[in-house]
Amino acid sequence: MSKTLKKKKHWSTKVQECTVSWGGSGELVTVVEVRGGAELGEFPYLGHIVSEALVCHGGRFPSSGDVLLEVNGTPVSGLTNRDTLAVIRHFREPIRMKTVKPGVCARLRIFE
């Protein structure tokens, strides 16, 4: 007899979208640190976040370590850190970020 296999959900069902603004406290990159990038062989991910200066208008508040997939519909996976920061700086606030927790899929693991 064969055992029934439990079908696992695809990692894309775990993607979270959040609309954030940061008020008059400069640029988003001063409030949210972006780490990783293609030059390191990693997806871009969020580092230190100054949560007091960030306002989440919708969705789940991003947390440190979340893998950054899109910024305002622009995919950032495969971009260098410098290019990811340029995409973020290009848009005015508020911006929409799509993120996913690391380790949801073996391909999205972050190693420090």
Descriptors for this entry?
single chain, 112 residues, Pdz3 Domain, five-stranded antiparallel beta sheet, 2 helices, globular
Your description of this structure?
- By secondary structure, the chain is an alpha+beta fold.
- The chain has a single domain, classed as Pdz3 Domain (Roll), CATH 2.30.42.
- 12% of the residues lie in helices and 29% in strands.
- The protein is built from two helices and seven strands.
- It has helices at 28-31, 81-90; strands at 16-21, 32-35, 45-49, 55-59, 67-71, 74-75, 95-100.
- The strands form two sheets. It has a five-stranded antiparallel β-sheet, with no helix packed on it.
- Strand 5 and strand 6 (74-75) form a beta hairpin.
- It is globular, with a radius of gyration of 15 Å.
- The model has no long low-confidence stretch (mean pLDDT 80).
- One of its GO terms (cellular component) is cell-cell junction.
- This is Membrane-associated guanylate kinase, WW and PDZ domain-containing protein 3.
- Residues 65-103 form the PDZ domain.
- One of its GO terms (biological process) is signal transduction.
- It is found in: Cell membrane.
